[in-house]
Write a structure and sequence with these properties.
30% of the residues lie in helices and 25% in strands. The chain is α/β, with parallel strands linked by helices. The protein folds into two domains: 123 residues, ATPase, nucleotide binding domain (Nucleotidyltransferase, domain 5), CATH 3.30.420; 109 residues, Nucleotidyltransferase, domain 5, CATH 3.30.420.40. It is globular and about 45 Å long. Bound molecules: beta-D-glucopyranose (BGC). Beta-D-glucopyranose (BGC) binds next to helix 3 and strand 9.
Length: 267
């Protein structure tokens, strides 16, 4: 005789997941890969996100198996959006500054498709963060040109004008004082060069001033790992452009990837 397994009354109830208004977002980064189920009616995560370290070297096979482990953790059936730290057009990766260079020319959609139980959409990570912040967060209802800048392992940028994204703007790589800007002003440069917040914010300010003089945005929104401590550096900035911190902080990439997956944007 088999004994029926009764539900554990102390276990947290499984969150409600409506397949029509949700999608799964995955944010692939230089140091971590994180994912979660997103409620697209308001851009919130349903339940906890799950993060694993980015495998080193971050090759297509290694990254796809990490994505697999993340998807297995949830077993979500529905569309999957994948944000990647490089240029992505029609699902194919074209640059990989902070990932293994063997990604260049590889279809991220094909690489991940066998590893998750649903159709896959792929886009640039900063573009994902930008879509999320303009739809649900700090840029909601804001007219004109918004530049979302993510400071993490690299610098990502998204250009959104009156709600319309111009994809794959690689403004983290503009040259300032003879250097690729992200090598000096990314969050990772602060750790690498042992800078305090004030010293790093001077570099961020130099970078942002350069951007605003070229593009004259009406708002900067900051995302990426650095948004954990905005009070330590945002007050040091002296840009003419108003600034806001991403409302979704470091989850904006997950939310935007899910949004792109549901709306099949940027395919
Ligand atoms: C890449 C961008 C990416 C950014 C943030 C840069 O090195 O070139 O595509 O958005 O890092 O991850």
């Amino acid at each position: 005789m088999t004994v029926p397994v009764l539900p554990d009354p102390s276990a947290a109830p499984a969150p409600e997941v409506d397949p029509d208004t949700t999608a799964f977002g995955i944010d692939i980064g230089g140091t971590g890969i994180k994912g979660g189920v997103v409620n697209l009616t308001d851009g919130t995560l349903i339940g906890e996100r799950f993060r694993l370290d980015t495998p080193q070297p971050a090759t297509p096979d290694a990254v796809s198996s990490t994505v697999h482990q993340i998807a297995e953790h949830f077993d979500y059936q529905g569309p999957y959006g994948c944000a990647f730290p490089g240029v992505v057009t029609h699902g194919v990766v074209h640059t990989a500054a902070n990932m293994d260079e063997s990604w260049v020319g590889v279809s991220l959609v094909d690489a991940v498709s066998g590893h998750v139980p649903g159709p896959v959409t792929a886009l640039n990570d900063a573009d994902a963060a930008g879509l999320a912040e303009v739809r649900y967060g700090a840029g909601k209802g804001h007219p004109g040109l918004i530049i979302v800048v993510t400071f993490g392992t690299g610098i990502g940028t998204a250009l959104i004008n009156d709600g319309v994204l111009i994809p794959n703007a690689e403004l983290g790589h503009i040259e300032i004082d003879g250097h690729d800007a992200e090598t000096k002003a990314a969050a990772s440069a602060r750790d690498r060069d042992g800078l305090n917040w004030e010293q790093w914010s001077k570099r961020a300010n130099r970078y942002l001033t350069h951007l605003e003089n070229l593009l004259w945005p009406e708002l900067f929104i900051f995302g990426g790992g650095i948004t954990k401590n905005p009070h330590k550096w945002v007050p040091h900035l002296k840009t003419r452009t108003p600034v806001k911190v991403a409302a979704m902080r470091n989850n904006a990439g997950i939310v935007g990837a899910a949004l792109a997956a549901r709306e099949q944007k940027l395919l």
